[in-house]
Amino acid sequence: MKSCITISLVPSLKGGPWILWDSLEKSVKESARLGFDAIELFTDGPQAGEKNELRNLLNETGLALGAVGTGAGKVLNGLTLTHPDQNIRAKAISFVREMIDFGALFNAPAIIGSMQGSYSESTSKQDALNYLTDALEELGDHANTQGVSLIYEPLNRYETNLFNLYLDACEFIDQLSTNGVSLLADLFHMNIEEDSISDSLQKGARHLGHVHFADSNRKPVGNGHTNMAPIATTLQEIGYDGCVSAEAFAWPDPLTAAKTTIDSYRKFFS
Ligand code: LER
Ligand code: MN
């Protein structure tokens, strides 16, 4: 497994669940200094920093790019893959495509979290699921051509009404034709929704592609009441070898949050 930490390059979203908020250079260097293996980037689009800055920083520090988030497509631009307006769905697909290409330059998958949207009065559940299926088929195949996977993330009930449970999302992925999509287990969302996080991870190990590492209250692991030891044991038992990526509030401040996270990672995973 790889220890990974989120870096947001979108200051207007301050207060969101990302740990480091400084410039790309400062955040990458701080992640390396603390001993993380990888970073996960949240950007406003398919670029980070100046030209070649990200590649140079990754080369210099030896860190990997673990994943790129696509949520800015929704939060900043109002796009979702299940929007009732066909034009907006098309723009959402283009945005995710560009994010896949951006991540692929560094061998990193893109994550579809809030970009999945929700069904509503103007889109039936079945229509939304059809739109999501079409988008994931197209984008999963596209990710394959770029040599990366596409990561789909079930979210808690307050953020989507499409898939809240990890195993429901597994069944949904099973019936896709593309093999380009894997799943994200966000331990914060799972703490709200699952009967047992460990059981779900065990039963759905076949699709696990990324983990968001946060405590019950979305603070860095160690500040809440999630029982992390059995979850870590399960991840080891199922042979998960991807990123354990801290997507949590920068509580009480970014540097303390980063330090708490790496300490917790070492406590549970080494
Ligand atoms: C994204 O990874 C996520 O977990 C969402 O809660 C962001 O809104
Ligand atoms: Mn997440």
Helices and strands in order:
Elements: E1 2-8, H1 24-34, E2 38-42, H2 53-61, E3 64-69, H3 72-75, H4 86-104, E4 110-112, H5 125-145, E5 150-152, H6 166-174, E6 181-186, H7 187-193, H8 197-203, E7 208-212, H9 228-237, E8 243-246, H10 254-269
Parallel strand pairs: 1-2, 1-8, 2-3, 3-4, 4-5, 5-6, 6-7, 7-8
Helix pairs in contact: 1-2, 4-5, 8-9
The protein binds L-Erythrulose (LER) and manganese (II) ion.
Any key phrases for this structure?
TIM Barrel; 8 strands; 10 helices; binds L-Erythrulose; alpha/beta; 270 residues; binds manganese (II) ion
Instruction: Please name the CATH topology.
Output: TIM Barrel
Strand content: 5-15%
Q: CATH superfamily, please?
A: Divalent-metal-dependent TIM barrel enzymes
Mean pLDDT: 98
Q: Give the SSE string.
A: EHEHEHHEHEHEHHEHEH
- Point out poorly predicted stretches: none
Count of folded domains: 1
Record the strand order, biggest sheet: 1-2-3-4-5-6-7-8
CATH architecture term: Alpha-Beta Barrel
CATH class value: Alpha Beta
**H/I helix tally:** 10
Structural class: alpha/beta
Bound molecules: L-Erythrulose, manganese (II) ion
**Beta strand count:** 8
Straight-line distance between termini: 10 Å
Structure notes:
The chain is of the alpha/beta class and 270 residues long. It is built from ten helices and eight strands. The protein has helices at 24-34, 53-61, 72-75, 86-104, 125-145, 166-174, 187-193, 197-203, 228-237, 254-269; strands at 2-8, 38-42, 64-69, 110-112, 150-152, 181-186, 208-212, 243-246. An eight-stranded parallel β-barrel has the order 1-2-3-4-5-6-7-8, surrounded by six helices. Helix 1 (24-34) packs parallel to helix 2 and helix 4 runs parallel beside helix 5 (125-145). The N and C termini lie close together (10 Å). The mean pLDDT is 98. It binds L-Erythrulose and manganese (II) ion. Manganese (II) ion is lined by residues 113, 153, 186, 212, 247.
